Amino acid sequence: MTFQTMIIQLATCFLTTLSIFSLTLLGAVPLGLAVYFGQKSRIPPIRWLIKIYISIMRGTPLMLQMMVVFYGPNLLLGISVPKNWRFLAVIIAFIINYAAYFAEIYRSGIESIPVGQYEAAEVLGYSKGKTFFKIILPQMVKRVIPPMTNEVITLVKDTSLASVIGTVEMFTKAKQIAVAPRSPGMVTFAMAGLFYYVFNYLVAFLMNRLEKAFDYYKI
Predict the structure, then answer these.
(1) Interval 97-149: pLDDT, tens
(2) Which of 190, 34, 14, 19 is nearest to 88 (CA)?
(3) CA-based R_g, the chain, Å
(4) What is the pTM of this model?
(5) Which residue has the higher pLDDT, 32 or 75?
(6) Neighbours of 48 (CB within 10 A)
(7) What is the span of the domain harbouring residue 160?
């Protein structure tokens, strides 16, 4: 296999890695906020269910969660799954896992905001919804960007776990290429590592720019 062919194959499978990353963020970021609100629900059963959900997601390996999502519907419930279920199972498992972590990050960010700001908003006649979206949310975003950046970078690397249920993303393809006859061998893993490093660098750069965009909120 030529070096050029190896790069093309890695780049092609990187699109799968990028899809897992993008779809996970698209689902987990808003779901995490919904989970946070569930933690604060006035209905005790909802609060307890959310606490159990977060405990399970944070206390068990993501690899195991993917296997449960992939095999569970058919083995436990006898439900026939669609042909693209392998990829969908990866996305679902990633979203519900990362939403639990994001919910805790949101909680720490929101609860760090002084109570006096809520009281001031109430004096000014703001509704709870307007207080949250106009006053609390922008400050919360500013506070949670650093821990969110760490989680997002971890997500980039965690995409390699998708191979546990047979999804071929970039790192899986790198392993396949490395063991093939006449392959570039360790050069393949070096190039895969370079792909991850460059992508993580871009993610960190964009998150840093986002943090600077909120610099006008003094915390």
Answers:
(1) 999 999 999 998 888 888 887 878 888 788 878 888 888 888 888 888 889 99
(2) 19
(3) 21
(4) 0.89
(5) 32
(6) 11
(7) 3-213
* 12 within some domain: yes
Query: Does residue 206 form part of some domain?
Result: yes
CATH number at residue 150: 1.10.3720.10
- 127 HSE (CA, 13 A, CB side): 3
CA–CA distance, 167 with 23 (Å, rounded to integer): 15
- Could you tell me if residue 218 is inside a domain? no
- Look at residue 161 and tell me if it is in a domain: yes
DSSP string over the chain: --HHHHHHHHHHHHHHHHHHHHHHHHHHHHHHHHHHHHHT-SSHHHHHHHHHHHHHHHHS-HHHHHHHHHHHHHHHH-PPPPTTHHHHHHHHHHHHHHHHHHHHHHHHHHHTS-HHHHHHHHHTT--HHHHIIIIIHHHHHHHHHHHHHHHHHHHHHHGGGGGGGT---HHHHHHHHHTSTT--THHHHHHHHHHHHHHHHHHHHHHHHHHHHTTTS--
Cα gap 110→116, rounded to integer Å: 13
In total, how many domains does the chain have?
Answer: 1
Give me the DSSP letters along 15-32.
Answer: HHHHHHHHHHHHHHHHHH
